[in-house]
Automatic annotation (TrEMBL):
Domain Cytochrome c: 79-168
Endpoints of the signal sequence: none
InterPro entries per UniProt: Cyt_c-like_dom, Cyt_c-like_dom_sf
UniProt-recorded Gene Ontology molecular function terms: electron transfer activity; heme binding; metal ion binding
Protein name in the entry: Cytochrome c
Amino acid sequence: MKINIVLSALMFSVLLVGCGGKEEKKTDGFSVDRKKSTEKPVETPAADNEVPASQRITLDEKGVGQIKSITLDPEIDMEMAAAGEAIYNTNCTACHKLDKRFIGPSPRGIMERRSPEWIMNMILDPKLMTEQDRCAKDLLIEFNGAAMANQNLTVEETRAILEYFRTL
């Protein structure tokens, strides 16, 4: 019986040493060898990739909505602009900052990129615009799906904000 225990212990020791004696190359961390993919990225038209929607110039587009045409006086109505600034500060600054990109685009320079009709239509009915206007759809994508909230402003309030944007 003693011999069986000694032989078993000896065989176990030999087995343990035999399995553990192999030196493997050790490295810090780990790596995965992957085969190169044969897939190619989907290409979109160059015009869409060149300029983000927030910087794209679409002055000839009026958007979708109730504002079909608007004529701006050459002189800025400072009283209307002040009223527009107050409305903007109350309703818009949670998502729009004048000097930087935030949840939504900065309105600074908007008059050089969009038509007055487009701006007013976007403020008056952002849901309709993002459903039917290409630029508004692209802005929604660019700003990670953060849809502009409808502030339920009147045409007169929206026109005052537009006048304020003319001063920026």
